[in-house]
Design goal:
The chain has two domains: 104 residues, Rieske Iron-sulfur Protein; 277 residues, Naphthalene 1,2-dioxygenase Alpha Subunit, Chain A, domain 1. Helix content is 27%, strand content 26%. A hairpin with a 2-residue loop joins strand 3 and strand 4. The longest helix has 17 residues. The chain binds FE2/S2 (inorganic) cluster (FES) and fe (ii) ion.
Length: 462
């Protein structure tokens, strides 16, 4: 799909001209709360990217379903009676009412509450009331629920794409799979979702959380200081940027990841206990991936546009040992200044039920809706959306500073013998991952051939 000249002509000036800003590590503040930008994002980004829907383990049986969204559009994530997972538009083909009205469950089909058209859990129309009297010629094979044209999964993570011409999910993830595999393939059974996703509203733009998880390593010492002070987490995991522990990877197929790690040879595996680690092996990973996992304290990253993950080990009590878990989340757009955060907690499938309960507790107490870390972040982010909507920002085209670690600002020399993909830097005093996120965003919002390019280099132009 190409953007029409009319669409582009309607774009605000600051958007079409921001390629040069990005090259200098600057970002117009207004992108964090602007109706025109937001409307374009729903069409140019959410309707054309691979968007995370859910994990296969959430709907293991035929008929299992859960309500999900792509952008703001409502979909049903459902495993049909044929075992196939589909992502169906939750809109009746008769007059558009929502056919599924409960968050999740198991059903043979969905009957519309308006006039009673009923659909199988495969999306096919099964019956319409008064067919003999009112719909004698209706070909019910033509009136099934609309479905997302592309649905594919990676290690159990199901994504959908509304663009029928989109490249495969495998191509979309590309070299970034090297890092995803470290989170998902350590044990033979992979990772499993524990419980339902928690969700909550924040007065912030969806990009706020998405960019944060790309490697905003300098906010933890400030935003999360109270958690460090009480000793729930140590400074290596959440303290100030530190070359010894911090590793950033940016420009990896348009994505980024931030890693905190101990020295080579040390074993920590995000604080999973020995009985869980006993299920880990290098069988499904390269030696370099396995060794990196072994010495890792924290991994966090974002698959553009709004799927993020956090692999971490923490405790909720000084009397109890830390427990590792994987949090996956989506930043659901709900307006230019509103985001609904969805958060799933995962643990290795082979872990005991007791450990999974513990991982869930620790995950919820740190990054759940009332979690110690989560509360810190969502206290700060709404301020950005507020500033972004000011008349002052509009009149002055206020730009934000994303220059940390850029070019000669810091130690941005890539690690020469890095075995993974992307540009790896042995420092987390930088915002290269955030710049990667916004370069990817810009490339999708404004086609490069029509405007100044944001470029692929992370070196400043001036
Ligand atoms: S809108 Fe669904 S049956 Fe009429
Ligand atoms: Fe944070």
């Amino acid at each position: 799909m190409n953007l029409t000249e009319t669409q582009q002509a309607a774009d605000p000036d600051f958007l079409t001209k921001m390629g040069d800003d990005l090259k200098r590590g600057l970002l117009p503040l207004r992108v964090f709360n602007n109706q025109q930008v937001y409307d374009a994002e729903l069409r140019r980004i959410f309707a054309r990217s691979w968007v995370f829907i859910g994990h296969e383990s959430e709907i293991p049986n035929p008929g299992d379903y859960a309500m999900r969204t792509i952008g703001e559009d409502p979909f049903i994530f459902v495993r049909g009676r044929d075992g196939v997972i589909r992502v169906l538009l939750n809109s009746c083909r008769h007059r558009g009412a929502q056919v599924c009205r409960t968050e999740m469950g198991n059903a043979a089909g969905f009957t519309c509450p308006f006039h009673g058209w009923s659909y199988r859990n495969t999306g096919e129309l099964e019956a319409v009331p008064a067919k003999k009297d009112g719909y004698r010629q209706l070909d019910i094979t033509q009136w099934g629920l609309f479905a997302a044209p592309k649905v594919e999964s990676y290690c159990g993570l199901v994504f959908a794409n509304l663009d029928p011409e989109a490249a495969s999910l495998d191509d979309y993830l590309g070299s970034y799979k090297w890092y995803l595999d470290i989170q998902l393939k350590l044990s033979e059974g992979g990772m499993e979702v524990i419980g339902e996703p928690h969700r909550w509203m924040v007065d912030a733009n969806w990009k706020q959380g998405a960019e944060n998880f790309c490697g905003d390593s300098s906010h933890t010492q400030m935003t999360h200081r109270s958690v460090i002070d009480v000793g729930i987490v140590d400074k290596a995991a959440a303290g100030a940027p530190n070359k010894k522990f911090g590793l950033h990877v940016h420009d990896c197929n348009g994505f980024a990841i931030s890693i905190r790690q101990l020295d080579e040879g040390k074993s920590v595996f995000w604080e999973y206990p020995p009985d869980v680690i006993s299920h880990f092996s290098a069988d499904r990973l390269s030696e370099a991936q396995y060794q990196l996992a072994k010495r890792s304290i924290v991994h966090n990253g974002t698959v553009f546009p709004n799927f993020s993950f956090l692999h971490f080990g923490l405790t909720d009590s000084l009397e109890k040992p830390a427990a590792g878990y994987l949090s996956i989340r989506v930043w659901q757009p709900r307006g230019p200044g509103k985001t609904e955060i969805w958060n799933w907690i995962m643990a290795p499938k082979e872990a005991s039920d007791e450990y999974k309960r513990r991982a869930y507790q620790v995950g919820m107490s740190s990054f759940g809706p009332s979690g110690s870390f989560e509360q810190d972040d969502v206290a700060v982010w709404p301020g950005v959306a507020r500033s972004a909507s000011t008349v002052f920002a509009e009149i002055n085209n206020v730009k934000l500073n994303y220059q940390m670690g850029m070019g000669d600002m810091g130690d941005s020399t890539p690690i020469a013998n890095w075995e993974g993909p992307g540009v790896a830097v042995q420092s987390n005093a930088g915002e290269g991952g955030l710049r990667t996120f916004h370069k990817t965003w810009f490339a999708r919002m404004v086609p490069q051939d029509k405007t100044a390019s944001a470029g692929s280099s992370d070196a400043p132009e001036e």
